[in-house]
Amino acid sequence: MSHSAILRLPTQRVHVGDIAIGGGAPVVVQSMTNTDTVDAEGTARQVYELAQAGSELVRITVNTSEAAAQVPRIRKILDGMGCDVPLIGDFHYNGHRLLTEFPDCAQALAKYRINPGNVGKNRKGEDQFAMMIAVARQYDKPVRIGVNWGSLDQDLVVRLMDENARLAQPREAGEVTREALIVSALESARRAEDLGLPHDRIVLSCKVSEVQDLIAVYQELARRCDYPLHLGLTEAGMGSKGIVGSTAALAVLLQQGIGDTIRVSLTPEPGGPRTQEVVVAQEILQTMGLRSFTPMVTACPGCGRTTSTVFQELAQSIQNYLRMQMPVWREQYTGVEEMTVAVMGCIVNGPGESKLANIGISLPGTGESPAAPVYVDGEKTVTLRGDNIAAEFQLIVDDYVAKNYARREAGDKPGKRIEIKAV
């Protein structure tokens, strides 16, 4: 099925390690660890899990001397695991000191995240910002200047509020605060360039926690600059609230061609996997037709015709299997992420939807014959019966992958991303 192309707004391209952000490159998925960075093994393990799930950039907290000292070790552990995902250092109040006192940390990181609202105050703050930019220049590292609603430079807010109060028709306070976010990002980027950081080494973000505010801020930010933009609600929340909020905000902006890299900042459920935020980010991009990451499963929602839960269990089993297999398939084959699978629950839409997918199965509804026809590229190939439908269908999927997707040549790096021309 073809999709209408989403025209991307033109932005400058920034390279973070081997990953390109902006300039027509595919929208990049990134995430962040929630481990104590001092625990090098635990942090490296979570970085690896996030990368395996599909995170193309991973940010880690660098907040203490002990944490900074462990960054080179984390990089070494990851390299030993064959994981080359670029690491981003998240710096706040003391980043200027950590980057200068721990040069091995500065070298091991692929990018620095700087929040201009908390690098210091007045002249001292300017000097601390300059120190961080100087390190970025020394090691040729890009930076993300990331402004947050909750840590906005209050001096800037007061200045803009005072200017607003003198207007004949003052704007609402919320509008002035949104303007402060944008001004903070753009003024900091200009200062970084004045300090010698190249234009193509800067990524911007202006994160807030409300959907409408985020859309308004990024629409205006995109209008005023060509820096690549990092999208995401700063605190999306937990569960369905976080998923829905992130999807609502990011989908609107992405549909308008705004955004070059995204993070879905989900609060994990107690004991839940950190990787869920990566899956959600991928699914936002894939369901919008912007990128493909893993075979998509179309599944029947169920109704009064499907009192059996067999189709639900099979859909879940197949979806989990496809995601689990994708790291293996990605290494062996090209194009598997484009495969579509349909798991349907009764005769009403089952055969039709199954024929539209690469592989589809139509399970029997209530009162229907206990048989499940399987369709491959629109043609019925077999009818499954009995208690082993899930295992047999899984074998059909494996066979389809092996027969229909080209094996990678030796040395052909997986995950090559299609370039999309910006207009």
From TrEMBL:
Gene3D superfamilies: Dihydropteroate synthase-like (3.20.20.20), Sulfite Reductase Hemoprotein, domain 1 (3.30.413.10). One of its GO terms (biological process) is terpenoid biosynthetic process. Residues 11-281 form the IspG TIM-barrel domain. Keywords: 4Fe-4S, Iron, Iron-sulfur, Isoprene biosynthesis, Metal-binding, Oxidoreductase. GO terms for molecular function: 4 iron, 4 sulfur cluster binding; 4-hydroxy-3-methylbut-2-en-1-yl diphosphate synthase activity (ferredoxin); 4-hydroxy-3-methylbut-2-enyl-diphosphate synthase activity (flavodoxin); iron ion binding. Its EC number is 1.17.7.3. Pathway: Isoprenoid biosynthesis; isopentenyl diphosphate biosynthesis via DXP pathway; isopentenyl diphosphate from 1-deoxy-D-xylulose 5-phosphate: step 5/6. [4Fe-4S] cluster binds at residues 300, 303, 346, 353. It comes from the Bacteria. It catalyses: (2E)-4-hydroxy-3-methylbut-2-enyl diphosphate + oxidized [flavodoxin] + H2O + 2 H(+) = 2-C-methyl-D-erythritol 2,4-cyclic diphosphate + reduced [flavodoxin]. Its cofactor is [4Fe-4S] cluster. Residues 297-397 form the IspG C-terminal domain. Binds 1 [4Fe-4S] cluster. Converts 2C-methyl-D-erythritol 2,4-cyclodiphosphate (ME-2,4cPP) into 1-hydroxy-2-methyl-2-(E)-butenyl 4-diphosphate. NCBIfam families: ispG_gcpE, PRK00366.1. Belongs to the IspG family. HAMAP family: IspG. This is 4-hydroxy-3-methylbut-2-en-1-yl diphosphate synthase (flavodoxin).
